[in-house]
């Protein structure tokens, strides 16, 4: 269940929000005038999220390369890596 807090809690209950983010590894949603405004999360959670997006992009690049026929045998790729050609 998402944690939703008013923007005043950032000022008045910062430590409580920080502890929640670190303990549960999920964001706290901050509202402003009753509307969603921000999502606050720990650095660790943010870095995992960004890393996941980077991995998905690399996987998409690989799938696109396969569709375009840009493939080669594994042994050849490994030899190229060992020779420093990649």
Helix count, DSSP H or I runs of 4 or more residues: 4
Based on CA atoms alone, the radius of gyration comes out at 22 Å
Specify the biggest β-sheet: 3 strands, mixed
Distance between the ends: 46 Å
Strand order in the sheet with the most strands: 1-2-3
In percent terms, what proportion of residues is strand?
15-25%
Q: Multimeric state of these chains?
A: single chain
The geometry reads as elongated
Helix content: 55-70%
- Strands, count: 3
Mean pLDDT: 95
* SSE class: alpha+beta
Task: Give, in order, the helices and strands.
Answer: EHHEEHH
The stretches of 5 or more residues where confidence is low (pLDDT under 50) are none
Structure description:
Helix content is 59%, strand content 17%. The protein has four helices and three strands. Strands 1-2-3 form a three-stranded mixed beta sheet. It has 86 residues and is of the alpha+beta class. It is elongated and about 60 Å long.
Describe the secondary-structure layout.
Layout: E1 3-6, H1 8-12, H2 14-24, E2 28-32, E3 35-40, H3 43-67, H4 74-83
Parallel strand pairs: 1-2
Antiparallel strand pairs: 2-3
List the main descriptive attributes of the protein structure presented here.
3 strands, alpha+beta, 4 helices, three-stranded mixed β-sheet, about 90 residues
Brief synopsis:
With 86 residues, the protein is an alpha+beta fold. The chain has helices at 8-12, 14-24, 43-67, 74-83, and strands at 3-6, 28-32, 35-40. A hairpin with a 2-residue loop joins strand 2 and strand 3.
């Amino acid at each position: 269940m998402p944690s939703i807090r008013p923007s005043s809690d950032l000022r008045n209950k910062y430590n409580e929000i920080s502890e929640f983010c670190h303990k549960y590894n999920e964001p706290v949603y901050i509202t402003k005038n009753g509307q969603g405004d921000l999502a606050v999360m720990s650095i660790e959670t943010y870095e995992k999220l960004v890393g996941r997006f980077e991995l998905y992009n690399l996987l998409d690049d690989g799938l696109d390369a396969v569709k375009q026929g840009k493939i080669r045998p594994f042994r050849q790729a490994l030899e190229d890596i060992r020779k420093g050609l990649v």
